[in-house]
Every structure is written in structure tokens, then in C-alpha cells.
TrEMBL record:
CDD domains: CobA_ACA
One GO term of the biological process aspect: cobalamin biosynthetic process
The organism of origin for this protein: Desulforamulus reducens (strain ATCC BAA-1160 / DSM 100696 / MI-1)
Pfam families: CobA_CobO_BtuR (PF02572)
InterPro entries the UniProt entry points to: CblAdoTrfase_CobA, P-loop_NTPase
Name of the protein described by the UniProt record: Cob(I)yrinic acid a,c-diamide adenosyltransferase
Alphabetical keyword list: Transferase
Superkingdom, taxonomy of origin: Bacteria
Length: 183
């Protein structure tokens, strides 16, 4: 194989990208990535775990971004880490089945699994299954996994890991849940 050919094949290999950490900016970063990708002609699918609210980004995508398809698997309420409700477990499983189906379909150039790291940390989805999905993804697919608590094994197999670290958060000054900022 010539140099040009191998460069081309490296360029075409899709990436596994992990956005984690305890600061604010993971999901919004993933949406920024999605926006950039659709601008370059990608078909993007974003699956949200443990979330059901009509977030601003979901409303904006419906309105302006036909090449970004969003599925939500969750309720608009908190999942308890040590005691998730059966419905939370069921929705996470359904979301993960959808993720596998979407990835296997070959319909998308980029798939974003938003908050999947949290779903794994809460034991809603087995870590091994997520690792296997990432390792066996179609070669050209870009796969983005977000959420705090990304596991060590996921960090190991990823091509990119970014950690958003809280330095300051306006919550601590009593400024809570603003439209356009939090949702
Ligand atoms: P965003 O969706 O704004 O990009 P995120 O995906 O990094 O945030 P999550 O961990 O998914 O954050 O939490 C969802 C919401 O919880 C955020 O909208 C946010 O403002 C709030 N949040 C995130 N990090 C913190 C923090 N360190 N302290 C308090 N609230 C936080
Ligand atoms: Mg998030």
C-alpha cells in the first residue's frame, strides 16, 4: 500500500470521542460537534439517555437541522443513582437497543450517545456492551459518547477524551435552570 493510500484510509477511519468530567459543557459540546458535522454534509443521529425534556437544542434541531435526528430515552425527572426506577432501566435498555440498530443501519456518519457514560455508571447499561459497541462500530462511523464518569476502559479505547472540569458554576450562587443555558 502506498503512502497516499494509507493516509486516505487513516483519514476515513471514524473516531471514538469521549466527552466527560464534572463541569458544564459536555452535551452542548456534543451538539456543537453535531452542528459542525451536519454543515459538512454528515447525517448525524443523537440518542439521549436518561433525558426526556424538550431541551432548546432538541427544539432547534427540529426547526433548523433536518440532518440531525434526535431520539430521547428518558423521563423529565432525576434517575436515582443507587435506586433507579424500573422504568429508567427499561428506557435505558431501549435506548441502547436503538443505538445498536442505528449504528448497524449504516444510515449515519456520526452517532452521538449523550449521557451514556452516566447510564453505565448507574448500571442501567452494561459497560462491556458499550465497549463492544465502540470497538465493533463500522470503520467510518464517528462515535461520540458523553456524560460524567466515563469508565477507565472506555477512556482507553477512545481516540479522543476531553474532560470538562468545574472551576465555578453559577448553581453555587443560586442561579438555577435557565432556559437557553441549562435547557
Ligand atoms: P450542558 O448540557 O449544559 O452542556 P453537561 O452536559 O456538561 O451540561 P450534565 O452533567 O449533563 O452537564 O448536567 C446537566 C445539567 O446540569 C447542565 O445543564 C448543568 O448546568 C447542570 N450542571 C452541569 N455541571 C454542573 C455542575 N458542576 N454543578 C451544577 N450543575 C451542573
Ligand atoms: Mg450532559
Amino acid at each position: 500500500m502506498g503512502v497516499m493510500e494509507s493516509t486516505a484510509s487513516i483519514a476515513k477511519r471514524g473516531l471514538v470521542m469521549v466527552i466527560t468530567g464534572n463541569g458544564k459543557g459536555k452535551t452542548t459540546s456534543a451538539f456543537g460537534q453535531a452542528l459542525r458535522a451536519t454543515g459538512q454534509g454528515y447525517q448525524v443521529c443523537l440518542i439521549q439517555f436518561m433525558k426526556g425534556r424538550k431541551y432548546g437544542e432538541v427544539l432547534a434541531a427540529e426547526k433548523y437541522l433536518p440532518d440531525l435526528k434526535i431520539y430521547q430515552f428518558g423521563l423529565d425527572s432525576f434517575v436515582m443513582r443507587n435506586n433507579p426506577a424500573p422504568v429508567d432501566v427499561e428506557l435505558a435498555r431501549q435506548g441502547f437497543e436503538k443505538a445498536k440498530e442505528i449504528i448497524a443501519s449504516g444510515q449515519y456518519n456520526m452517532v452521538i450517545l449523550d449521557e451514556i457514560n452516566v447510564a453505565v455508571d448507574f448500571n442501567l447499561i452494561p459497560e462491556e456492551e458499550v465497549l463492544s459497541l465502540a470497538k465493533n462500530k463500522p470503520v467510518e462511523l464517528d462515535l461520540v459518547l458523553t456524560g460524567r464518569y466515563a469508565s477507565d476502559k472506555l477512556r482507553e479505547i477512545a481516540d479522543l477524551v476531553s474532560e470538562v472540569t468545574e472551576i465555578k458554576h453559577h448553581y453555587n450562587a443560586g442561579i438555577k435552570d435557565r432556559a437557553g443555558i441549562e435547557y
